[in-house]
Task: inverse folding
């Protein structure tokens, strides 16, 4: 009897760990606060396959972005952003300086590993702030799709509410 209960408990724990591995992978990448916030504001986060993006990390297969929304989106110095260039190319760069004159915010950017300062770019060009990069593997693809599906269709916030 005790062996059956122990075996059942071990099977249940193993199942829970395996079922949660995609979520643990995403949580490890973006952090627990961002992971929980993605369920509160599902339209604020998305991922992009890094195919036609002039990227600083050529090994990154997917880029996880936080969209510029009303939920306290902020781009600071040192943040990596994805933006449209004047030639309508998607580019990934690091913000090194921010200026705000007469209500117009201007971002000055730099390519990674160089001292080639570029800019200015403006808020309307920014697609989002990069919060993580993943290699293009089957596991990462599965994790991103499960996360995307769950933040849109799963009422996970009921698990975190105190009422």
Result:
């Amino acid at each position: 009897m005790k062996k059956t209960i122990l075996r059942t408990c071990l099977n249940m724990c193993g199942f829970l760990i395996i079922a949660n591995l995609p979520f643990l992978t995403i949580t490890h990448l973006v952090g627990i606060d961002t992971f929980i916030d993605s369920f509160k504001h599902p339209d604020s986060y998305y991922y992009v396959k890094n195919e036609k993006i002039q990227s600083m990390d050529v090994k990154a297969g997917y880029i996880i972005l936080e969209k510029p929304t009303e939920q306290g989106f902020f781009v600071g110095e040192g943040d990596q952003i994805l933006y449209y260039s004047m030639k309508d190319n998607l580019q990934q760069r690091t913000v090194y300086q921010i200026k705000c004159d007469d209500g117009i915010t201007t971002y000055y950017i730099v390519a990674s590993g160089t001292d080639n300062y570029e800019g200015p770019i403006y808020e309307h060009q920014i697609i989002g702030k990069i919060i993580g990069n993943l290699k293009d593997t089957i596991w990462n693809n599965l994790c991103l799709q499960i996360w995307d599906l769950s933040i849109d269709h799963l009422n996970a916030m009921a698990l975190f509410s105190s009422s």
In short: DSSP finds four helices and eight strands in the chain. The mean pLDDT is 78. Strands lie at 45-49, 53-54, 62-66, 80-84, 90-101, 104-110, 117-122, 126-134. Helices lie at 2-30, 32-40, 138-153, 157-160.
